[in-house]
Write a structure and sequence with these properties.
The structure is a homodimer of 253-residue chains. Chain A is an alpha+beta fold and 253 residues long. In chain A, 42% of the residues lie in helices and 21% in strands. At the A-B interface, α5 and α6 of A face α5 and α6 of B. Chain A binds a DNA duplex (30 and 30 nucleotides) through α9.
DNA sequence: ACGGGCGCTTGATCGGGGTCAAGGCGGGCC
DNA sequence: GGCCCGCCTTGACCCCGATCAAGCGCCCGT
């Protein structure tokens, strides 16, 4: 609600670069919204982040934010839309690393080699915030809360990737995937029980290590047993507790 | 060579805490050896790291360096021996996250929650260096090379975990596993073509998402086709190029 | 309105590897 | 020294999900 109402103030901002909204609106869905507002970064820190960020986009579905092999220079926070990151192995097969919603950071896996190890592709209309990494790292030395938040996000990505390795059945994986998306949408203020998949079945299958046909069949079985209703890419959760039961084996202890 | 000869100077060191060797020897196999010696940290930075580190161990096989659920307070660099990190899901099944050789950092995946999400268990006699994380983070704000090295290691862990997700056959996984171990041993100055597995087959199987029986069978097949020779936990690579060929599908592009 | 293509679904078959079962071997402890 | 237990191996069987194949429906462009 505050979002649409605040558009009237869009031009009365102090931020000289990414001034498409006032500071609260600008960061409310942004990667650093939490750290700025919630983790003790003061007005000055917020200001400095705003000076650092560059708003980029919109990208259309299929456009690349960065590409495998590009020289690493920045991390990006998704601001709107969904981004998929993926690699291609030497057989030409795609391996999808993740689907990234607004507020999530991409490019962190490139720090180590200074080369992006994956493509970042818009799945729908996408806007991002670009943070020059050298500048961000320098800022992190001056503002410990920003350093801490970077450490946190890197650490979380390790845990998330580890979680995906777990042995499990197609049912467990798909249930966990839907629940995970649902939770992330909910955390962003969307309905928890109705979500729109922004990627084709084949991408879901690839991400989960399944065949597209299996995704289709399992979704149908979930629907037949009343767990959810699927209509194209729209999914309505009808029995979240039941889904959680199906996924329970691979949810964190 | 310089190692055994330097023992004569063991007591003539400036480091007040972890003074079991001179500075070069102490760090030569340590997580921060590279950053101290190779990435531009000067004498002062090295000194500061030395003041921060606490040498711990020896741990015997089966001992825990830390446990799932423990409050996160420090990261550890393996100094000697091999450490496995593993989680237990709610069905009681183990999920092995990694095997960590000397010079590798463990505990980075706990930053995010401030709770260790896994057990760290010694597979043989192990010594570690403990770095209080708050102190390390503070030091990182003052010494950018240390901050950078932490970012790098976190980033690398993300990439490593992502790599493991890839669909692949038992043969590919096992070949890649052996080659990976071989390369890591070689980078630490050990023979590349003769290595000792420090974990039981069941742990290898768990780590690779296979059954122990499959590991056994595939190793036998590799041996029958002349790729390597297995004798208990001793593995001799006889045809590394052939192994690389088997693993090629899942090696980075 | 129509054609075409891509994404999705559903069915049929097949195979890699998990599981169950039964030894063999080796090392530690009394 | 001998026993025992845990690790490893080998064999037989079977199941989940991949693959192959066919058809459907929706959207998009002309």
């Amino acid at each position: 609600m505050g979002y649409s109402e605040s558009t009237g103030g869009r031009k009365a901002v102090f931020n000289p670069i990414a001034n498409d909204g006032d500071d609260v609106t600008f960061c409310s869905t942004c990667a650093f919204g939490a750290v700025c507002v919630g983790h003790g970064v003061d007005k000055i820190g917020l200001n400095e982040l705003h000076c650092l960020v560059e708003h980029a986009g919109p990208y259309r579905a299929g456009d690349a934010i960065f590409r495998n092999g590009d020289r690493f220079s920045a991390v990006y926070a998704v601001r709107a839309g969904t981004v998929k990151t993926s690699q291609v192995d030497r057989e030409g097969r795609e391996l999808i690393l993740g689907f990234h919603l607004p507020g999530e950071l991409i490019g962190l896996n490139a720090i180590h080699t200074e080369i992006y190890p994956c493509d970042a592709i818009a799945l729908e209309t996408v806007e991002v915030c670009r943070f020059s990494f050298p500048a961000l790292a320098t800022l992190a030395t001056r503002i410990p809360q920003i350093q801490k938040e970077l450490f946190r996000r890197l650490s979380k990505d390790i845990g998330d990737a580890s979680q995906r390795i777990q042995e499990s059945t197609a049912d467990e994986r798909l249930a966990a995937f839907i629940l995970n998306l649902s939770a992330r949408y909910e955390a962003r203020g969307f309905a928890a029980n109705a979500l729109r998949l922004s990627m084709p079945r084949s991408d879901i299958a690839n991400y989960l290590g399944l065949a597209a046909e299996t995704v289709s069949r399992v979704l149908r079985r979930f629907q037949d047993s009343g767990l959810l209703v699927v209509e194209g890419r729209e999914v309505s959760l009808r029995n979240p507790a039941g889904l959680r039961e199906v996924a329970r084996n691979i949810l964190p202890e």
